[in-house]
Amino acid sequence: MTDAAFATAAQVLAQHGATSPIDCAIVLGTGLGGLVDQLDDAIRIPYAAIPGFPTGAVSGHARQVCIGKLEGRTVLIFQGRAHYYEGGDAAVMRVPLGMLSALGSPPLILTNAAGSLKPEMPPGSMAVIADHINFNGPNPLVGDGGDGRFVPMVGAYDPKLRAALKAAASAERLSLGEGVYMWFSGPSFETPAEIRMAQVMGADLVGMSTVPEVILARRHGIRVAGLSVVTNMGAGLHGGAPHHGETKDVASAAAADLARLLRAFLRGL
């Protein structure tokens, strides 16, 4: 994809009336889409209306761009993401994230539903991502041209954004853990043996998203933070036997805390 594709996507937003500078962008993971209902003066644009955006659907992901005001900030929310497991394309979110570069590269908060490998981060809790392990392997920049594809990943999860999220959690008296996120391809959940391997390799959280998006965002120089809502313990840990229904149900129950955290973060932006 070229810069022209990103500019075209941004023009579609403008045609729908979204012309204000974006202060922050947020990707909402499985079961976490309710935040869009808190936007004031919201503009909602289906992914299908924007050239280059992913099609298809996964339950728990509405797939629309929502732009509006939250805590006095203009926020762009991707309500639902596309995943590598849907078609084997690690760069499936290339245009949505590239579009942000055409909108001034606002800071990006990536949220997800994740499995926990730590008893101190039980289902229903939240964690800020400190780093990741691309265990899955595919990289969304394969086939990208030029030296810009050699993206450095030290500090990929922006330290200042992470600190701001921790400060927001403290202000709201919300518990916020921190850990390393390991990307598995899905759509099947991890085996108990894979979870034990992940522990040995230094992971604290596991999931099926986020990592390709971080790489794509960093390709465009966008500052990134990641937030996981823990929906289950990893397979075989403390009775963990994850399934998609559990992921959606627990994420939906924890969505109110996530909304409080993000609103407090936006107030301090």
How would you portray this structure in words?
The protein has 269 residues and is an alpha/beta fold. It has a single domain, classed as Rossmann fold (3-Layer(aba) Sandwich). The chain has helices at residues 3-15, 94-102, 159-171, 192-201, 211-219, 244-267, and strands at 24-28, 40-46, 64-70, 73-79, 108-116, 126-133, 176-183, 205-207, 224-233. A hairpin with a 2-residue loop joins strand 3 (64-70) and strand 4. Helix 3 (159-171) crosses helix 6 (244-267). The protein is globular. The mean pLDDT is 92.
Q: What Rg, in angstroms, do the CA atoms define?
A: 17 Å
Overall pLDDT score: 92
In DSSP terms (H or I, runs of 4 or more residues), the helix count works out at 6
Our measurement of the CA-to-CA distance between the termini, rounded to an integer number of angstroms, reads 31 Å
Coarse morphology:
globular
CATH superfamily label: Nucleoside phosphorylase domain
Q: Report the CATH topology name.
A: Rossmann fold
Structural class: alpha/beta
What would CATH call the architecture? 3-Layer(aba) Sandwich
